[in-house]
Fold:
Amino acid sequence: MTQVTEAYDWRGRDIIDAYGGKVGTVEQLYRDKDTEQPEWAAVRTGLFGTKLSFVPIQNAEPSGESVRVPFTKDQIKDAPRIDDANGELSQQEEAELYAHYGMSYGQRRSDSGLPEDGANGGREAVGGDVSGPTTDDAMTRSEEELRVGTAERERGRARLRKYVVTEEVQQTVPVQREEVRVEREPITDANVDQALDGPEISEEEHEVVLHEEEAVVEKRTVPKERVRMEKDTLTDEEQISEEVRKERIEADGDIDR
Structure:
């Protein structure tokens, strides 16, 4: 059972459901007049907080700056609508709310007793609940179950970038050039006619054109390869560790073993 002093600090806090989703904000707390324990939280829900939903807080517990209840968001928002509680809930309203949340409605849960037709179906309770409101003749044992899933998030980015670098390339190219070589030959019977052709004494010039090769560089762009990025999906195993709570029920006292 939630302690009064602790629960009254919950005003203005967010209510989250069994899966951690935000439901609304605690506006007011309602307590049982007999036990003086907080029993209901009035929670503002809806897009603009215009709807008032009642949530039982017997099993509620703090979760950081919020308050967690063991119900789903839809279950809370679909609870019977109480337009004007006037500071307290009627027996009929409490009975409808408890039935909606799958909880039994007993006499000590209300301010003035059970409805006349009874809510325990005519069954006689075995013993009395000495630690809280009377429910029925059995306890419900619950435990937390771990639900593990995956969520996709961005782990990084990769990109292709093309840039230009300059490097020096050296190649050896053979080149040719012409040079003059002077040859002398004696006058013989074979060349005497050419040697005596012309004046006996004269001035004369003979010119020879020389040629050479030079290295010429030409550059052209040649496509070499195509580069692209592809994504591969790798599967790893990640160990998840989390604590879960389980209720245990033990019997003691005068019991026939």
Observations:
- Residues 22 and 230 are 40 Å apart (CA to CA).
- Helices lie at 4-7, 73-77, 91-100, 192-195.
